[in-house]
Amino acid sequence: MCGEQVISNFYGRAVKAGPGVIPEKCQKQPAIVRLGKRKWRCARCQSWLSEKENKLPSGEIYCSNCITLGRLTSADTLYTIPEPNHFAQPTQPVLAWTGQLSNLQQKCSSQMLKAVQAQHDFLLWAVTGAGKTEITFASLAWAIESQWRIAFVTPRIDVCNELYPRLQQAFPTVSILLQHGQAQIPYQYRQLTVCTVQQLLHFVKAFDLIIIDEVDAYPFVNNRLLHQAVRRARKATGVTCQLTATPPAKLVRAFRRDASKELTILPLRFHQQPLPQLTIKVCSTTPAILAGQTQRYVWWMNTIARWVQAGYPFLVFVAVVEQLEMIYRYIKHHLTTSSIRGTTVHAGDPFRVQKVAAFRNREYTFLVTTTILERGVTFSNLQVLILAADARHFTATTLIQIAGRVGRKSAAPTGEVLAVCQQYTWALKRARREIAFLNRQGKNLVTK
C-alpha cells in the first residue's frame, strides 16, 4: 500500500517509478512508443526519435531531447493519476498582499481576472518594471479559492528564484513548490508550482491555470518542444496567461486575430516614470579590450568611476562568456578605489544564484555578466554598461530588456544605460525606437 504523499506524486504527472511505489489506480503507458517500422516517439516530450540515432548498445531506444530530466528508454513505463484537485477550500481570503495597484495596473488586473474566469487565454504586454507579477495576484487569488491547480512558469531559473519568495509573501497560507534544475527541494504535490517551463514536461493535464512570465525569453521562444509541454501540462478546460515586455510580433498578431483570446497593453511603469533610454556611444578601442589585447584607459571608465563615487551598483554586459574575466580584470585594474568588489556571472556558473544574491545585498558593487541577467531581476539604484552593444548577441529585444533593469524602484526611478559600440546597428535603432514609442504611449496615458 502507498501512502497519500506517495500517491499524490502521480497526480497529473507522468512518472517513471520503481517497483513497490506504484499506486494501484495509476494509468500506465510506455515511455518510448513505437510508431512505424523505424520511428519512435517519447511519451514525455513528444519528440520523434529514429532508431539509427537513438539506439543504445542494449538495443533499447532512448530520448535525447529530454534526457536532462532523467533518461527514458523503450524499456521504461510512465505512470500517472488524473489530476483530482485535491486541495482544501480556503475559509478566508488567501491574498495577504497589502500593496496598492495604480489605476492602470488595476485595469489590467481586472481584465486578466475577467479572462481567467471566462477561461480565455490572455496576453499582458507590459513594459519592464510595470509590476506584472502584482497584476496577476487577483487572478491567482480567485483561482486558488476556486481550488484550481496553478503553474507560474518562466524560462529562467533566476526569475523563478525571484518569483518564489514574492508569491510566498503574497499568499502565506497557500502551499507553493519551487522546481527547477538547481532547486534542492524534492517534488511535492502543491496547489501552486513555481518552475521553469522545462519542468512542465513532467506533467499531463495537470493545471487549470498556467501563467508564463517572459514568454519571449530563451529557451521558450520559438521552441516547439516547450510549447508542446505547456499544451500537454494544461487541462483541456485550462487557461494560459502570458506576460512579457517584448512580445514577438507573431504572438501579438495571433491574439489580435482570435476573438477567444484577450490582449492588454500597459506602456507605463507602476511609478509612472518613463523607461530609461539607451545612450549610444562609439568607441573603437573596446574590441581590443574585449580581446585582452590592450590595457589602454578608455573614456567609459570615467562613467564607471562616477557610478562608484556615487555609490551606485552597476552591471556590465558582454556578449560572450570568454570576455567576462578580461573585462572584470580591466575594470579592477583601472578603478582607483581598490576596495570595490565585483565578480563575473554567466549561465553555467555553479555559484550564479549566490552571486546574484550577494550583489542584491550590496556585497558586490558590480557584476560583469552575459545576457543571463537581461531580465527577471530587480536591483535598486542600478546603472548599466553594455560593451560591444553592436554584437549579434544583443538583439533589439535583449537591449530593451537590459535597459529595463534600470529605474525599477519608485525610490530610484531613473538611471543610466550606456551602450558602447563600433557601429549603430539595426538592433540598437529598433531598441531605441521601441523604448521611445512606449514612453510616448505612457506619457499620453498620464496626460489624459
Give a topology summary.
Blueprint: H1 4-8, E1 15-16, E2 27-30, E3 32-34, E4 39-42, E5 48-50, E6 77-80, H2 103-117, E7 121-126, H3 132-135, H4 137-145, E8 150-154, H5 157-170, E9 176-179, E10 192-196, E11 207-213, H6 224-233, E12 234-244, H7 249-257, E13 261-266, E14 279-282, H8 286-290, H9 300-310, E15 314-317, H10 324-334, E16 342-345, H11 352-360, E17 366-369, E18 383-387, H12 396-403, E19 417-421, H13 426-447
Parallel strand pairs: 7-12, 7-13, 8-10, 8-11, 9-10, 11-12, 14-19, 15-17, 15-18, 16-17, 18-19
Antiparallel strand pairs: 1-6, 2-6, 3-4, 4-5
Helix pairs in contact: 2-4, 12-13
Provide keyphrases for this structure.
alpha/beta; 448 residues
Can you characterise this structure?
This protein has 13 helices and 19 strands. With 448 residues, the protein is an alpha/beta fold. The strands form four sheets. It has a seven-stranded parallel beta sheet with strand order 9-10-8-11-12-7-13, with helices on both faces. It has a six-stranded parallel beta sheet with strand order 14-19-18-15-17-16, with helices on both faces. Helix 6 links the parallel strand 11 (207-213) and strand 12. The protein is globular and about 70 Å long. The model has no long low-confidence stretch (mean pLDDT 92).
